[in-house]
Amino acid sequence: MNKYEIMFIVKSTIDEQTIKDTAISLKRVITERKGKITNERDMGRKDLAYPIKKEISGFYFIFNCIADKEAITEFDRRTKLNENVLRHLVIKLDEE
User: Fold this and answer.
1) If you ran DSSP here, which 8-state letter would residue 15 be given?
2) CA–CA separation, 10 vs 86, rounded Å?
3) 3-state secondary structure 45-74
4) Comparing C-alpha atoms, which of 45, 55, 51, 46 is closest to residue 84?
5) What is the rounded CA–CA span in Å between residue 63 and residue 56?
6) Which of 25, 28, 33, 39 is the most buried (most CB within 10 A)?
7) Segment 35-58, tens digit of pLDDT
8) Burial track 1-18 (b if 16+ CB lie within 10 A, e otherwise)
9) Distance CA 55, CA 25 (A)
10) φ, ψ (nearest 5 deg) of residue 83
11) pLDDT tens per residue, the chain (96 residues)?
12) What residue segments make up the domains of the chain, in order of their start?
């Protein structure tokens, strides 16, 4: 199990419940595969530096988690398929 920091941006033009459901479903991808979310932050709505898929703002979420490679691979696959996610980034943190 490794430590990861995951950031993703959800479209701001969808309704609030869909935004929450998207974040919950992505969190579930990690937890269903025996990963653990150690910290989660909803950074709120922020303007994007440049338009992405004609969106000019998005809702930012950050998860710190402990998971294995398979859980992260599945998270990456699901975010690429989810039309509500504009961008995502997974960073493997160094062991301390």
Assistant:
1) -
2) 6
3) EEEEEEEECCEEEEEEEEEEEEECHHHHHH
4) 55
5) 23
6) 33
7) 999 999 999 999 999 999 999 999
8) eeebebebbbbbeeeeee
9) 22
10) -70, -15
11) 899 999 999 999 999 999 999 999 999 999 999 999 999 999 999 999 999 999 999 999 999 999 999 999 999 999 999 999 999 999 999 876
12) 2-92
The token pair at 88 is 């995502």
| Geometric angle at alpha carbon 82, from 16 and 20, rounded to 5° | 25
CATH value of 2-92 in 3.30.70.60, 3.60.15.10, 3.30.365.10, 3.40.50.300: 3.30.70.60
Distances (CA, A) of 29 to 21, 47, 49, 65, 94: 12, 27, 28, 12, 22
Q: How close are the terminal C-alpha atoms of the chain, in Å?
A: 14
pTM above 0.85, yes or no: yes
